[in-house]
Amino acid sequence: MLQQNQDNLSAAFDRQKAAFARDPFPDIDARRDRLRRLLALTEDHEAEFCGAIDADFGGRSAHETRLAEIIVVRAGIRHALSHLSSWMADKRVPTAMPFWPARNRLVPQPLGVVGIVSPWNYPFQLALAPATAALAAGNRVLIKPSELTPRFSDLLASLAAQHFAPDELDVIVGGPDVGKAFVALPFDHLLFTGSTTVGRQVAVAAAANLTPVTLELGGKSPAIFDPSCNLDTAVASVAYGKLLNAGQTCIAPDYLMVPKGQGAAIAGRLAGAMAKLYPRIADNPDYTAIISDRHHARLTSLVEEVRARGAEVIEVNPAGENFGNTRKLAPMIVRNAPYDTRLMQEEIFGPVLPIIEYGDVSEAIGHINGRDRPLALYWFGKDKAARRRVLRETVSGGVTINDCLMHIAQENQPFGGVGPSGMGAYHGEWGFRTFSKEKPVFVQSPLGAGGMMHPPYGATFERTLRLFKLMT
Ligand code: NAD
Fold this sequence. Notes:
Elements lengths: L2 H20 L5 H17 L1 H12 L4 H27 L2 E3 L9 E8 L2 E5 L5 H14 L3 E5 L5 H14 L5 E3 L4 H8 L5 E5 L2 H14 L3 E4 L5 E4 L5 H13 L11 E5 L3 H15 L15 H16 L3 E4 L16 E4 L6 H4 L6 E7 L2 H9 L6 E5 L3 H10 L4 E4 L20 E2 L4 H7 L1 E8 L15 H13 L1
């Protein structure tokens, strides 16, 4: 990386560090003002953001940008604005009897300067939802968005400069080299959203500074159809969940597990449901393109590998279109793919859905537990016993029952992965807490009896200790 970039990065960080030192506990008015400016940034420039992201993707539905990015972020900012005063309040926590009449308090405090590294797939949401939480908690924020959405990243940088002082919120534009230098800075907290491979490198870099990290990573998220499920709604939901953003969604169902013997019939119904959502592909503005030629080629090669190994590939191209030089990729449903192929090992992150058949619920659970813990899990059915077993016996970042994706939109629930799909969480109050030091404070009373336990030890100590034992 050029020395000048490194100097700019260090200057941006130092500026925020100094600003935090000057104002280590922004009051509620200052925080509300920052959140309102962030809200204005999202409200006043919606069309520009949709246009920039559309151009970066070579075709991204403005409806999807508004629904899955802009509205989600706005809802998060409004939620933070309305709950900020209760989140910021000192919390009374119980005090054990021997310490009465002293009192315990939990005091939330800003950490300082927070770094946010975001990916390309939902560039707006994944930069600004963590920023919302970090600003609400009273921190200074530096954002490093993805180099794969350059128009969006430049737009965000210029709008951030119009709405914020650089010592409040600043955007650093650049690729992996800038990313590496960014995560090596001694942040007070880092939130990284991206691949598991890069997440590991980020955790190593942060460890050198003992910077705490929240890692929002990816993985293969399963969807399971129980024999008791309503197939019509289940199929419609998986078709939508898989094809939103052309499958480039961290919590998209990666593969589908169906009861033995039903794979062919369900594949046919899925193809029908997908064709209904997207009757045309190449020139359909509702259907998003693949982000780059490299990602397009990767997805094509994953499918070619399983085809060559004897899998059945059903391409959903209802209008029989030729895709020419667009980066649109038709939805594909795959049956009988060998497990040792890349399609069945790597996170797919595109509109390709493998179907696996399973015998009973134990086999389905065994399949999931034999792999990395997923970011999301979807279960469809009415059988309460089977549902309880799947919920209790598998570990995943989050779950939606009888639908896809919905758990990410719940501001009253934490969002985050587990193990290889991530660590830590944010959204709503969990985001505020992630970016706060929840400082335990013990407030001694003038009537406190602690002095009776001090030396010189003797009869008073023994009497107090006896009393202490009775009370604990
Ligand atoms: P990525 O890991 O390639 O890049 C993410 C960001 O990290 C980019 O800004 C990039 O410039 C930066 N970066 C790259 N190398 C770096 C390094 N060595 N050090 C520091 N930063 C570096 O991910 P991507 O391809 O942009 O995104 C796709 C992945 O993100 C998928 O795996 C997906 O599942 C995951 N994801 C997870 C969530 C979630 O909330 N858990 C959300 C969206 C995407």
